[in-house]
Write a structure and sequence with these properties.
- There is one protein chain.
- By secondary structure, this protein is mostly helical.
- It has twelve helices and no strands.
- Helix 4 packs across helix 9 and helix 5 (105-119) packs across helix 7 (138-162).
- The model has no long low-confidence stretch (mean pLDDT 90).
Length: 269
């Protein structure tokens, strides 16, 4: 253990793997130990379901059709994924806006202070307003995500674009580059890989706001389903749904990291 806090230690692959799964193993053992103890005291306990109970919950939601003929888990996933994907697509528009604010004084004067103020609004506090203005449809849920995450991404792009040396801008001017070329063919490509990291790190916030919107005004979706079965304390469904959402976000995060490493290998050098 004397090397634990050393900066020049090279871990063996086996050691690195074992350490990376340590807390997963501890959490799983702790959960099932507590679950076993609760079921010894009360076999009808449904707060901490056993593995077999959770597998039964997955069977009922993923492979058995409900009274409407739907496989609920897959229908909920498809609908939530559509909402999530639309929101992420809109959030990407914050990147060129941030670059524009960093390079064009008029754009900065127009948007910067507004976005700084807007970024401080607790998104969930405006949810009732969104329902009143946009109704209970898809637009209000997507608008909630945009209000909560868009300003943060735009401001991060603004700060990253400002770190680009001004000498590059002046050099581009002398070589005859247009303002559009400087902003979106010189500056944007340099910050875009890091902005993918910003998008990646905001995936949880995006999903959190989506769940909030679905829980209050939806008839289908992952967040909707969790809050419906909550009334019956159906932890055998809630826990698998939570794990499923976590796995989806983890895979998306992993995929974005893969894109960054494949397309921008110089970042690791």
């Amino acid at each position: 253990m004397k090397d634990f806090f050393r900066t020049d230690v090279a871990l063996r692959p086996t050691t690195s793997f074992l350490l990376s799964i340590l807390f997963f193993v501890v959490a799983i053992i702790a959960y099932f130990t507590a679950s076993y103890s609760r079921h010894i005291e009360n076999p009808q306990d449904n707060v901490m379901p056993t593995l077999s109970q959770m597998l039964d919950g997955i069977q009922r939601t993923a492979f058995e059709r409900d009274r409407n003929g739907d496989l609920r888990l897959w229908v909920d996933t498809a609908v939530s994924a559509q909402r999530f994907g639309i929101a992420i697509g809109v959030l990407f528009l914050a990147i060129p806006l941030g670059v524009g604010m960093a390079l064009f004084p008029y754009v900065e004067a127009l948007f910067y202070r507004f976005l700084v103020f807007f970024d401080k609004i607790p998104a969930l506090s405006v949810l009732p307003i969104l329902f009143i203005i946009f109704g209970l449809g898809e637009l209000s849920k997507i608008a909630l995500i945009i209000i909560g995450v868009f300003p943060t991404i735009a401001l991060d792009a603004y700060l990253r674009a400002q770190t680009i040396p001004r000498e590059q801008v002046h050099k581009a001017h002398t070589l005859g580059a247009s303002e559009h070329d400087i902003a979106y063919r010189i500056v944007l490509p340099q910050i875009f890989p890091k902005m993918l990291d910003t998008i990646r790190l905001n995936l949880k916030a995006t999903m959190l706001l989506l769940i909030a919107g679905e829980s209050l005004a939806a008839t289908v979706g992952l967040g909707y389903r969790i809050f419906v079965v909550r009334r019956y304390v159906a932890m055998d469904i809630i826990i698998p749904y939570v794990l499923w959402m976590t796995i989806l976000l983890f895979l998306l995060d992993w995929g974005i990291q893969g894109v960054i490493k494949a397309r921008y290998p110089w970042l690791d050098k």
